[in-house]
User: Fold this.
Amino acid sequence: MKISSVRSFLLSYPFREPLKLTFYGGERTILKRDAMIIRIDTDNGLTGYAPGPGSERAHSVIQNTIAPFLFGRKVADPDALRVQFFDGPGQNPDIAKVYCAVEVALYDLVAKAQGVPLSEVIGGRVRDRIRLYGSAGMYMPPERYAEEAAAVADLGFRAYKMRPGRGPDADLETVRLMRKAVGPDFDLMVDAHTWWRMGDRSYDFSTVEQLAKEMASYRVAWLEEPLPPDDHNAYRRLKELDLLPIASGEHEPNELRYLDLVLTGCVDYVQMDVCCQGGYAMARRLFSEIAHEGLRFAFHSWGTALEVLAAAHLGICWPELVVEWLEYPCYSSEIRAGMYPFPLADEMFTEPLEIDHGDLIVPRKPGLGVEVNESVIDRYPWIPGPWSFFRIDSPPETLAVTSDHSIKWEGKAAG
Assistant:
């Protein structure tokens, strides 16, 4: 089985009107949501798929570097191919990350050739389901968060993650109202990444400490990225206070920084995005360290159903005591609660994923186990440019965000 083509397709879903969300130190504007489908074909008629970072940079790397490397090679051992690539162009860490996204399609091919689920060729599944948390909630009044938490619970999820940032008093009131709305047996996660993105109004350590102490009384499942993610010393200080579980990881730039996060007592939950932070290979290495340290892992997954499923196949190769959670973005529709519409996310597949009592049931058909709906490629053409902007009030600046979630800021916006 030889590779006959490697292609990547950039996709965009534009909002009818820009979504403007006010937070404590400025305003966020969301124009669209982006995605990528990676497709690898072989000479025996099989096709493998993978999610990729929805960025022109990643697309260029795939077309100009990864595709020429893979063309004509036999697909038998993706691990061996990775070693060869890393000895060459993969010595560049940014190129290596993109390769690890493409690699999911190689595993999909190998699993299809063997007639087994993808999970069986990346470790072997030890379970058939993985627990999801419904992820939504962006910069709303406290009562709106409470309403959305209840709506996500009504969808069958057993957990809800939101993003605060309306000021310390409003953030605490939000948690109080959410707990009241969903009752005592529903998990609530607070993704506080905005707290360090507010310029001069960013929360200092003492404010974060006080909020963590007060939020703990409402049994928050974890407090995510309450501090700048590269300040591991501050995370250790906060964790040593033992106020509530702490989570971080989606902005770690490389494996060494992940190991520092894991081995020096910074967090209770380690997070990683398979799509853009190192793929299956790095995640498997980290899982061993996470298990050894008695920590838990939770997938970051902020894009499409293809990203969710690719992560799930890896997650079920480990027991729930190690890999506990998988993020499931809740996008709104005419019949479903959520943060905003992104129909492309679910339309990636011809049939919806199976969710039972808040757990994703991972398919047992060969490969990823689903049929990818390639009609989305024509229906959602790529729109160049960042998908989101943060306007910071003080000091005044505007910062752009691309689909690569492992980058804290893409950079200042032009003009």
